[in-house]
Amino acid sequence: MIENMARTIRVTPARLSLTIVLPATRCKKIWKYSHSSKHKIVKLCTKCRISPQHTYGTWCKDCWSQVSKDRWASKTDEERELIRKGQRLWYSSNKLSVQKRKIEQKYGLTEEQFNRKLEKQNFICEICKTTPDKFYVDHNHDTGKVRGLICHHCNIILGMSKDQIEVLRSAARYLKRYDES
Residue 8 is inside which H or E element, if any? Predict the structure, then answer.
């Protein structure tokens, strides 16, 4: 039955909800796709014709992954090393744009917003008031909301304490207790 399914499933009536339940090709998981929108189009992978297409092509994520693994395995050691060198060279010449893109994708913070935040806090870490070479985006792990820009050491402190205020207070009390000044 699945082999006979069309590549594209079209839902045309307004407010009609369509749910497609399909088994994955390799892992055999059952995937459930729900769409409730007028003229919604669900395009299936052109390779396996089961899973929906991934955002970067006409194949699903599993098929892309398998083809990439097969292609990499078919290369010689010299070709692999040449590819790695090319990737390192590209990354070193595009490092800043890669970092900007990662910050925007992960935190939704554009370069302009990042720079405004830096100016607002006078280009210093919000916690220790130092001027680091690199700033890290501090955010609430529960809500995802950006709190501020901090240095590496303060980022480590918050990460190790798992953002628990009581742990940080306890650490401050500990330091005061053994302060020799």
Answer: strand 8-11
Residues 152 and 90: their CA atoms lie apart, in Å, by 26
Across the chain, mean pLDDT equals: 82
User: CA 100, 102, 103: angle at the middle one, nearest 5?
Assistant: 65
Distance CA 98, CA 91 (A): 8
Strands 146-150 and 136-139: antiparallel
The DSSP result for 116-160, as a single string, is HHHHHTTTS-TTT----SS-EEEE-TTT--EEEEE-HHHHHHHHH
Whole-model pTM: value is 0.56
Residue in 106, 166, 170 with CA at minimum distance from that of residue 138: 106
DSSP classification of residue 51? S
- C-alpha 104/C-alpha 106 separation (Å) is 6
Nearest CA among 169, 128, 125, 167 for reference residue 148: 125
Taking residues 142-152, what's their average pLDDT? 91
Residue 91: both structure tokens together: 């990354």
